[in-house]
Design brief:
9 helices; alpha+beta; Putative xylanase fold
Length: 242
């Protein structure tokens, strides 16, 4: 952890990445470099019926909470409005599905917009929402929650992305300075009960560096193409951070 923080301080102070100015988002993400990985570290608080993890913590992250926390810090945005539809703190209002909830909510808040590369690949799947609810909440807490689960219907989701073979240094050089990268998994089966099409997320800085929270090394800043080549993703969906 100390070495990761030293490397980031080198970037900040000495311009180790070619002397370019550090953006507020890079600085916000950099504060958390070295933090360990914990899957699902945030919830609805101690009194919540389903997920009693804290509403905010900065000592550990998974990939999405790392992104959410850094975005909130850098843009002065309410973390709960990023994580929940309408900022309503309730498990059923949380933006669980990155493709159909998290990304549209972030666009509505003016935090991101898609990077248009023209023709892109698309992945499709049908989500069996009722089965997913039942797998996540085997014992609903009350009549309202039971009604939500019983009335849930399947829905379709689709994600445009850049195929991995098309992601080159030249393509990355045309990226916005601050971007979000959503990594698309290749093994999506329909109907989806567990797991998203998007299996990982992180920041792309300067068209070169990936800042993310990974299972193996926690929060780190590494070479984007090196990470992509070491993992079996089908491609990446890119969004500019506004």
């Amino acid at each position: 952890m100390k070495m990761k923080k030293i490397l980031f301080l080198c970037f900040l102070i000495s311009g180790c990445a070619g002397g370019a100015d550090v953006t507020p988002l890079e600085s916000a993400a950099g504060k958390y470099i070295g933090a360990p990985y914990v899957l699902g570290p945030l919830g609805e608080g101690a009194a919540a019926p389903y997920d009693s993890d804290p509403l905010r913590r900065t000592d550990a992250f998974d990939c999405l909470t790392f992104v959410e926390t850094a975005l909130s810090d850098a843009r002065g945005a309410d973390l709960q409005k990023i994580r929940y539809s309408g900022g309503r703190i309730d498990w059923f209002s949380r933006n669980h599905w990155t493709e159909t909830e998290w990304i549209p909510n972030a666009e509505m808040l003016g935090l991101v917009r898609p990077v248009d590369f023209g023709a892109a690949a698309k992945t499709h799947a049908v989500v069996d929402l009722k089965k997913w609810y039942e797998s996540e909440i085997p014992r609903p807490a009350g009549a309202r929650d039971r009604k939500i689960i019983e009335s849930a219907r399947p829905f379709e989701m689709s994600v445009p992305y850049v195929p991995r073979d098309n992601i080159t240094p030249e393509l990355l050089a045309g990226m916005p300075r601050d971007a979000l990268a959503f990594f698309i998994r290749c093994d999506v089966k329909s109907p989806v009960v567990r797991g998203d099409m998007i299996s990982h997320a992180g920041f792309l800085f300067g068209g070169r560096d990936l800042a993310h929270a990974g299972e193996k090394n926690g929060a780190e800043r590494i070479d984007f193409l090196g990470y992509l080549s070491a993992h079996k993703f089908c491609g990446v969906a890119f969004y500019e951070v506004l």
